[in-house]
Amino acid sequence: MQRPVLAVAVDFGTTFSGISYMPVGPNEQYTQLDNWPGATGKLYKVPTTISYRYDEANRTYVPDAFGFAAESAPPILRCSMFKMFLDVAVGAGDRQSVLINPESVRRPTWENLEKTVDDVIRDYLQLLYHHMKLTFMDEGLRSEDLEYNILFTVPAQFEVLEVEKFRSLVKSTGFGAHVISVSLREPEAAILYTLNHGIRSLMPVGQCIVLCDAGGGTVDIASYKVTAHNPATKIEQINVVTGRPCGSMNIDLAFKRFLFEECLDQKWRCYFQTSDGMIHLQRMCKVFSDRKEAFDNSPSTPNITIQVSPPSLSGNNIAAGYLRISRLKMCDLFKESVSGTLECLKEHVDRCLQEGFSIKSIFLVGGLGSSKYLHQRVKQYCASLPGETEVIKPRDAEFAVIRGAIESHQKNLLGADDPIALRLCPMSYGIRVSELWDPIKHDDRLDDHFWNPRTKQKMARNQIKWLIRKVVLEIIRDFYSKLFMSIRIYST
Ligand SMILES: Nc1ncnc2c1ncn2[C@@H]1O[C@H](COP(=O)(O)OP(=O)(O)OP(=O)(O)O)[C@@H](O)[C@H]1O
Ligand SMILES: [Mg+2]
């Protein structure tokens, strides 16, 4: 007899991860894991952080804790932000920390622990799996009685090779003992959540809706045309999903830059490179992160304050144990994330308008998507658009990916139709549109290039344009050589 199926969805995020699950069957409700080790209270997301300890016997670092429980480990034994290094185009030797001062001086923690980024991802997923399995057992959902069918979401920007690499990492952990699929793109999961929970008048048939999934690492934008509501909502993708690495962690990095470059007295700068100093720095960053999440640019709060750590900290904007950040400065710290999001959004909106669509709604989801300040800025931008565009922050916007993923996974397993009736192929299998700049292959005078802000590496761009240019040149050359040939034949 076949075992009943337990649908599970895993969102492995840059800064936070989540797991949701539900038995497959009619009228079942989903649940999210909320019992994370080290957390004070129920929380639906867990930091994508892992800590290691030294195993004397085997003379190696072994995984110790993950998520909240890892946050109290000394910074030199703790790794985070590793998801964004899962990049097949970047070689092991090139994997340098993308973090700006003071971290740029240091190598990524995992290199000091003699781990590769793949090791760290595998170890993190293994701890996540172990915790999930124990929880399921406690809840009477044993794998002996139920078949776990586990869906992993993947970032919109992952190329086929990256997805494959991620799949093989997942397979090498305990998750690999179950039925797994590594397929649903994060913005797709989020739009499915929005469709299931949105108000239909905000997505009228024939009009366009735009989804902006702004998370910790990246901001992804997707646009869809609504084609039907009856008997079920159907949408068609209008543009290829675009994204930028301008997520909320850029605000945290801007805060650190501000602290180091504009605030701290010289003597403290070195102190924060020490292990004691790093603990104090982490404490201040945590408080800043809370302030960032609450920031609404309200004139009634001209300054925000952060209790400094250690209390004797001195420098500009610091007085009586508090660091003061003006409202204007806060807007400045948000700048990279907000302008990156707006630029990316504008590109999409412009293309939808060019194709003759009117944009009824823009849905903001993800952690940064739930920011009141970002909401204001997107609303300001939309005021300049033709027609009336609503900017909606759906309820529980930060859980849109994980909730959309479990809902669509459940529906798929029950054999329901896919609400996304038309998908655009996100990439060509043949030609990379950007790759690492190779001074032997590429030429500064002829070839386009850009700096990847995520990896801080020079990238060659627009190979397709080069290809077209090359083909056109060949055609012109061919034309002239034939012309000269015929002139020569004529004249002889
Ligand atoms: N109101 C807010 N304003 C700004 N940032 C916020 C807010 N709420 C949460 N965040 C930030 O959002 C991030 C978490 O969001 P989310 O879980 O969507 O990201 P993620 O899935 O880890 O990243 P990604 O989707 O890029 O992989 C954290 O960096 C958190 O500090
Ligand atoms: Mg995410």
Automatic annotation (TrEMBL):
InterPro entries: ATPase_NBD (IPR043129). It comes from the Eukaryota. Gene3D superfamilies: 3.30.420.40, Actin, Chain A, domain 4. SUPFAM superfamilies: Actin-like ATPase domain. This is Actin-like ATPase domain-containing protein.
